[in-house]
Design a protein that fits this description.
- The chain has a single domain, classed as Pathogenesis-related Protein p14a (3-Layer(aba) Sandwich), CATH 3.40.33.10.
- It is built from 8 helices and 7 strands.
- The chain has a 4-stranded mixed sheet with strand order 4-6-7-5. A 3-stranded antiparallel sheet has the order 1-2-3, with no helix packed on it.
- Strand 6 and strand 7 form a beta hairpin.
- The protein is globular and about 45 Å long.
């Protein structure tokens, strides 16, 4: 699934009672950058308490829309596809969603995500198909036999971890809301994250998810 590129940054402060010690599953993982670790933490915050995430981070954005334009403080205005409709849809779904277990980093998923990130950093392309024609399943299968379910989210634009998650959760212009569903899917337990530069959109962040591996 693909999110049409946006450039913005979320500036809302973190509430005091997020259980960061439990949710920061990537804290001691050496193969992830600090920004990639922050993405894992932000996804886990969303999964652990979707209602709180909606209240703290999404609802303040309701005042930032004017028609199809999104005006986030300190950032260039963004032309959205759906306007406030997508945001309201995200808030509604999060408020009716149950908590899911935190995701844990996996080196195999990180390798597959890194392959695609490096490919797109070099080519400037977007989407889920690699320059070699590879799909997500083929890229993951280079490193292991995945079990039951896999998925992929890709974000182009602002490297800020919260911005990455916020915009994929809102999923503006994506009728299936597939990125949001991937984040909230309780069947997914493992994650790999790879973020880097992009020729066209400045930054790309690839997230690969899996329910598990056969061995």
């Amino acid at each position: 699934m693909f999110l049409f590129p946006v450039l913005s940054e979320a500036t809302v402060t973190t509430r005091k009672n997020w259980d960061v010690a439990t949710l920061n599953t990537a804290a001691k993982v050496e193969y992830l950058t600090d920004n990639e670790k922050a993405v894992v933490l932000e996804i886990n915050k969303l999964r652990s308490d979707p209602v709180a995430y909606a209240v703290e981070y999404l609802e303040p954005m309701l005042k930032m829309y004017k028609g199809k334009m999104l005006y986030m403080p300190g950032n260039v205005p963004i032309i959205t596809r759906e306007g406030i409709v997508a945001l309201k849809d995200a808030i509604k779904e999060l408020k009716s969603s149950k908590p899911a277990a935190p995701l844990f980093p996996d080196h195999r998923l990180t390798h597959s995500a890194r392959d695609h990130q490096k490919d797109q950093s070099k080519s400037g392309k977007t989407g889920h198909k690699g320059s070699d024609g590879s799909s997500i399943d083929k890229r993951i299968e280079r490193y292991g036999d995945w079990n039951k379910k896999i998925s992929e989210n890709i974000f182009y634009g602002d490297p800020d971890a919260r911005s990455v998650v916020l915009h994929l959760v809102i999923d503006d212009g994506v009728p299936s809301r597939g990125h949001r569903k991937n984040f909230l899917d309780p069947d997914l337990r493992l994650v790999g994250v790879a973020c880097g530069s992009h020729k066209v959109y400045s930054h790309v962040c690839v997230m690969n998810f899996a329910a598990g591996f056969l061995k």
